[in-house]
Amino acid sequence: MEKHLMTTTEAIDPVFMFILGSCLVLLIGITAAMVLFVVRYHRSRAPEPTSQVDGSLWLEVVWTAFPTLLVLGMFYYGWSSYLTLRDVPPNALQVTAVGRMWSWNFLYQNGKNSPKLYVPVGKPVQVALESKDVLHGFYVPAFRVKRDVVPGMKNHVWFVAPKPGSYDIFCSQYCGTSHSAMIATIEAVPAEQFEAWLKETKATGAQHPALALLEKHGCLGCHSLDGSQKVGPTFQGIWGRKTDVKTAGKEHEIVVDEAYLKRSIVEPNADVVEHFPPVMPAFAGVLTEEEIRLIIDYFKTSAGGAKLDGAKLAREKGCLACHSLDGSKGVGPSFKAIFGTKVKVVRNGKPEMATVDETYLKESILKPSAAVVDGFPPVMPVEDDLSPDEVSALVQFIKELK
Ligand code: HEC
Ligand code: HEC
Ligand SMILES: [Cu+2]
């Protein structure tokens, strides 16, 4: 038999009941004693003091010892359940929750991401907490976990979903206009269903033999296939993209081609991509010529050719938290049918009319404060980890919205 795992709910609930119970007993006891004394010693019943006792050791010991023990009991009980909240079971599933104004996105270790937190029923899940912008709070009332999500700080919670179903996730820190809309759900599903869901991602090009190689050699631990940041640059859209690299200490721009890819795999420190640490192990002698061929082929076709889904991106990057698709006004203007229209914007403090074309859209995404749409607050965040391909996909998506 597996040892029963104490869940966060099981750790917190008894402490809560204990403290609530103690408070109730004290409240009722003190109120009853007070009422009793008021009646019993009312002036009409006892006009003169009835007793002249001026000390009772017994009473003093009791009223010192009892509250002390009670409070120490609360501390001990509370502290040990706090430790349960902080000690993550070693076999916990790892997920990262990324909070931004005003949405949550959940990243799984295989690179999959989702706006809903899917978890297997009955298994512990550790959620690492990250914020893209301001202070948020990850709050799941059903599992009694609540933790601040602070930009630049590592934090985590863990929980076990005991039964299949949906559980609410809220943001517990006021983080701006649409704070109250920063809601997501945990979908707890049976373990087999969860595994199937998790694997679904790899649907694109799952048949490609290079993927197995990328997995086998741990490339996907450092490189994502979906555009997300890991230790190394994403493989999404890698073929033909322009990259700044450092070769022998000198910075220059290259276009990703066969020769560059081969060198990057065999001799990664020859050209080190800007803003990344030179930590990639060399695969010379580990991968055969044939295998490297396969991987490069894969980059050329699947990873490079895979079209980015602008709609999915707009959701993942949180754009849809502020921009509607149906014409309704949100924190920002709706994306519906804006392409080709004219908008009044304020540029350098001066109002002007702008035509919504590709250049305008691109600028709006990369430098939101350059031209601020009239009647809207200048609160759109700069998404600094968008790749050029992602920006084009977003522009394309907005362009096609009828
Ligand atoms: C320990 C983490 C790690 C592993 C494992 C790893 N890489 Fe890398 N890789 C990096 C980092 C960091 C960079 C960027 C710095 C550099 O260029 O050395 C990089 C750069 C690259 C580049 C150049 C990317 C660009 O945008 O120009 C390619 C191609 C690449 N890796 C392929 C692979 C392949 C194929 C494997 C598996 C056989 C692999 N990597 C395994 C960390 C890793
Ligand atoms: C925090 C809310 C917020 C988020 C998140 C956000 N925006 Fe905006 N966006 C705004 C606001 C407010 C405006 C209008 C003021 C301005 O132009 O800066 C705006 C303006 C725009 C415009 C110009 C629209 C027009 O009608 O002229 C585009 C295009 C745009 N955003 C795209 C995006 C994309 C793409 C994303 C996701 C990467 C995004 N926004 C994320 C708030 C947001
Ligand atoms: Cu928030």
- At the fourth CATH level, what is the homologous superfamily of the largest domain? Cupredoxins -  blue copper proteins
Shape descriptor: elongated
CATH class of the largest domain: Mainly Beta
Strand residue percentage:
15-25%
Notable traits:
single chain; alpha+beta; Cytochrome Bc1 Complex, Chain D, domain 2; 16 strands; binds heme C; binds copper (II) ion
Any overview of this molecule?
With 402 residues, this protein is of the alpha+beta class. The protein is 35% helix and 22% strand. It folds into 4 domains: 8-86, no CATH class; 93-202, Cupredoxins -  blue copper proteins (Immunoglobulin-like, Sandwich); 205-305, Cytochrome Bc1 Complex, Chain D, domain 2 (Orthogonal Bundle), CATH 1.10.760.10; 310-400, Cytochrome c-like domain (Cytochrome Bc1 Complex, Chain D, domain 2), CATH 1.10.760.10. A 5-stranded mixed β-sheet has the order 3-2-1-5-8, with no helix packed on it. α1 runs antiparallel to α2, α4 crosses α7 and α8 (310-316) crosses α10 (388-400). The two termini are 59 Å apart. Residues 202-206 have low confidence and may be disordered. The structure holds heme C (2 copies) and copper (II) ion (CU). Residues 217-219, 221-223, 231-233, 238, 243, 256, 261, 264-265, 268, 272-273, 276-281, 283, 295 line the site of one heme C (HEC).
